[in-house]
Amino acid sequence: MHTQQITNTIADLYTDAKYDKLKMIKGVAKSAFRPLQPKDFEEAYLPISNKQGIELVQLIKQNNFKNIVEFGTSFGISTLFLAQGILETNGHVITTELLESKAQIAKENFKKAGVENLIDVRIGDALETLKNHSEPIDLFLLDGWMNLYQPLFEMLEPNFHKNSIIYVDNANMVDSKKILASISKEKYQIELTFNSKVAIIKL
Ligand SMILES: C[S@@+](CC[C@H](N)C(=O)[O-])C[C@H]1O[C@@H](n2cnc3c(N)ncnc32)[C@H](O)[C@@H]1O
After folding, report:
1. Are residues 137 and 159 in contact, defined by beta-carbon separation less than 8 angstroms?
2. Nearest CA to ligand 1 atom 25
3. What dihedral angle (degrees, nearest 10) is formed by the CA atoms of 110, 75, 78, 84?
4. Is the pLDDT of residue 1 over 70?
5. Tally of structural domains, the chain
6. Rounded to two decimals, what is the model's pTM?
7. Would you say residue 73 has pLDDT above 70?
8. Mean pLDDT computed over every residue of the chain
9. Is the minimum distance from the CB of 74 to ligand 1 under 6 angstroms?
10. Dist. CA 159 → ligand 1 center (Å)
11. Longest dimension (CA), the chain
12. Interface pTM (ipTM) of the complex?
């Protein structure tokens, strides 16, 4: 029942996300004389792909992951895939979004999918909203502003354990490459998938 509700909600959101290109062009135009900001993409989903979502569900189920943390909620497409996974493992998701307007719409989407009680939505800068996180993290999905990947990784590193997976989207972009270059190769293994768009970091 829940799974179907989630699948239907994700399908509706992907349909709406088809207009993202136009919204992104508008966002880029606004930032002609300054660096891009999250607010420039306030109306855009910028979601992970359906294939990535399916892979995330598999990762959660195969590893029996229960404690999921996500950086970058947007309107909640990726979070709904995470919810689909943790429905089977009895887990929960913490997700964090800088923009209040996006987070509120994401919350509505979680209600539509019937999984709002499994998802803790934190509104604000991830460096603040996740600052006091003291629980172990099984899966950490990095899909927010890429200049925060490295500080967030370092801040939450004490919460990783030997089976944790850190899933880095847009791993082929300059700022993401910095985190991949900086992490200890003695401690972590990095596997690139989706034509290097995704990096999967394991201990
Ligand atoms: C690529 S989108 C996330 C897409 C989402 N994961 C999905 O697949 O549907 C990145 C999101 O990160 C948010 N963001 C940017 N900087 C942030 C910050 N400092 N803290 C929390 N969220 C942030 C943006 O507002 C944007 O909605």
Report:
1. yes
2. 38
3. 10
4. no
5. 1
6. 0.96
7. yes
8. 95
9. yes
10. 21
11. 49
12. 0.99
Where are the strands (E) in 59-188, listed by range?
Answer: 67-71, 92-97, 119-123, 137-142, 160-169
Q: Which domain holds residue 118?
A: 2-202
Across the beta sheet with 189-193, the strand order is 119-123, 92-97, 67-71, 137-142, 160-169, 198-202, 189-193
Q: pLDDT digits over 145-172, tens only? A: 999 999 999 999 999 999 999 999 999 9
CATH classification of the domain holding 82: 3.40.50.150
* Amino acid at position 46, single letter: L
Alpha helices by DSSP H, 71-198:
77-89, 100-112, 126-129, 149-156, 174-182
Q: Is the CB of 52 under 6 A from ligand 1?
A: no
**pLDDT tens profile 107-142:** 999 999 999 999 999 999 999 999 999 999 999 999
- Centre of ligand 1 to C-alpha 151, Å, is 15
Q: Which residues pair with 68 in a beta bridge?
A: 93, 139
Alpha-carbon distance 53 to 16, whole Å? 17
Q: Best of 74, 102, 107 to mutate for ligand 1, by most ligand atoms within 8 A of CB?
A: 74
Tokens of 124: 């604000």
